[in-house]
Amino acid sequence: MKDKTSFIPQEGEARPSRCPDNSAFKQQKLPAWKPQLTIASVLSSFFLTGAFCLSVGVCLILSANSVREIQIDYSDKCSDCSKLRENSSNWNKECHCSVNFTLKEGILGDVFMYYGLQNFYQNHRRYVISRSDAQLLGRNVNIQKSYCAPFTTYRNGTPMAPCGAIANSMFNDTIDLFYNLNSSVIQVPLLKTGNSWWTDKNVKFRNPESYNLSSAFAGTARPPYWQKPVYLLDEEDERNNGYVNDDFIIWMRVSAFPTFRNLYRRVSRIRKFADGLPAGNYTFRISYNFPVTKFKGRKHVILSTVVWSGGSNPFLGIAYVASGTAATLAGFVITAIHLKLRKKKTYFQK
């Protein structure tokens, strides 16, 4: 073992250098671009940025304003059903209501149907995490160790599928649209698949592997507020049943604000509706299941088109206009300061 004193340089010996190597990289001598900021370059950047943001913002606002949209609040129009649903013992009783409306002008192009909720806070911390992603991937997991509590198991130990507060509070109103043409009533064809994100449908949600869904979910029970088990969400389409049901997937993507809308259906462009929804009288027939009175909420159904910039939300356009205005005003302020300082400099030179 070496003595500690052997590491101490003796008199006359050269001490090891702590200087970095004499290379361009370590000596910070690499070629670099050093822009020389002049008043012309600074002002041009501010004014060009302002002009760009203003032009983009105006285009986005005009695009958002061109969206055709009709929104109907059916909370009060279905008041009898709402009173029935306030009593939880009536969960298995059906209640239907109808809402009539008129389109003075047809809605051309692709038409999307949304349901909207007001004063429903999905952004609560415990609500957001109340789910089991492993369970939603079709894995056999112990949900007692998840964040689903108290919606994990029943008193007899039967696990809930799916578990958690998000799944338990799933929106379950059924909305159908009818077109009243003269004396006949035509049901508007609606598409219930293809409405969720591809990554959600094919990556984040999967059914347990089995020869059929009923056996895959054997030994589990529906959440307390559901009227039917998860494997009966869509009995007509096996590819839209269980955890991969589009309505369920869309609901599980929680909203950041208490007032929000979720895509519910798309109008199938066939027969009389090949060009969209023609002008005339229509009726929403609603199977009312989702109570909102206790949390002072409201429910809406929305028919809307979309454009290249999205829906009828003008927020992005307003943000661009505000940014462009700020950049332009900053350019004018810098110009005024520059002219003032230049006059002072000229005065002192004289």
From TrEMBL:
A biological process term (GO) from this entry: phospholipid translocation
Transmembrane segments: 37-64, 315-339
Principal location: membrane
Cellular compartments annotated: Membrane
Claim: Transcription regulation is one of the keywords in the record: no
Keywords: Glycoprotein, Membrane, Transmembrane, Transmembrane helix
GO cellular component, one term: endoplasmic reticulum
One Pfam assignment: CDC50
InterPro entries referenced in this protein's UniProt entry, alphabetically: CDC50/LEM3_fam
Region (Disordered): 1-21
UniProt-listed PANTHER family: CELL CYCLE CONTROL PROTEIN 50 (PTHR10926), CELL CYCLE CONTROL PROTEIN 50C (PTHR10926:SF1)
Family: Belongs to the CDC50/LEM3 family.
Protein name, UniProt field: Cell cycle control protein
